[in-house]
Specification:
Elements: E1 5-14, H1 27-42, E2 50-54, H2 60-68, H3 74-77, E3 85-89, E4 94-98, E5 104-111, H4 115-130, E6 137-138, E7 142-143, E8 155-162, H5 164-168, H6 172-180, E9 184-188, E10 196-201, H7 209-237, H8 239-255, H9 261-276, E11 280-281, H10 286-295, H11 298-305, H12 316-329, E12 334-335
Antiparallel strand pairs: 1-5, 1-8, 2-3, 3-4, 4-5, 6-7, 8-10, 9-10, 11-12
Helix pairs in contact: 2-11, 7-8, 8-9, 9-10
Length: about 325
Amino acid sequence: MSGVVSATGLALQRNESGGLFPHTAAQGDLEALSLRVVDCLTRHEDGAEWEAYPLDSLSLTVRALLVERGLMTPEFARMSGVGRTLLVFGSGEASVEVNGSAHVRILGSRAGEKLPELWALVDSIDDYLEAELTYAFDEARGYLTANPEVAGTGLRAHVTVQVPALMVSGRLGPVAVSLASHDIGIVPLWEASGGLFQVFNRHTSGTDEAGILSRIGEATKQIAEKELTARKVLFRENPVKVRDYVGRALGVAQRAWSITAAEAVSLISAIQVGGELGILQPALGAKEGFALMRRLQPGNLVINEIRAAHGGLEDPGVDERRAAVIRDVFAGTCAVI
């Protein structure tokens, strides 16, 4: 699965018993809950590794960066108001949104297929918070949320897969239909540039957390097997066409002076697959390729490459800087003749 699975993410929602959900709660209640959550995490033995940020203190560019890194949901990024806080653990291993769509939402993201490892971290953070908060829980319905679809375990798991061969061959549709029959969804990431999609559990009830992780892991494995087979078939049946597609992607990557985020993802995806098929060298792994894709998203690029925390995400200079990074990364990549 190493050539297909790019990243893993988890989101766990919890609400405090006896209080109103955040969208109807009074400002004072939001502030009080935020202070309790911050105190709970920062005074724990790992508290030195937590940093708390009032949401309104974060610029739009920083919010974009956090969304791109899987540390903030787009929904939370659009919010504002006192009492909404983001806590980040370590160098970005996990985060906690306070007073978003739920009282707390724990987020975690990892490169590659890391469901068990990531769940261990998210579950431990959940335990810390449960020592401070009394969760809203019903014996029949499980953990209660404002959105009934997220009740039960409150857990959403998603795995990012790179499936360009299934997409171009028209085989992704039947795969999606099969997944849906098992309550698994698949949605495009970055508008499906480069054939990137996220596989996720549609509902959070009906089974426990282990069952959700197992279903997602099995679905991901099946998709990876189908994608790798499709790549081999395409290369065997249309070797010149595949080589031409990969070669053109490398040519643009090494020579272009302005590249959009969507185009960058497509180029990296083509070059990565080309390396795995032995068309290009050195090969680029799925995890490394996805890390580069994230690095070249607007928020990451403005803050970490241009180093302007309040820079414009739509500035033409962003596309120029993105092209410069890509030229540098792939300067030594060449075709295998």
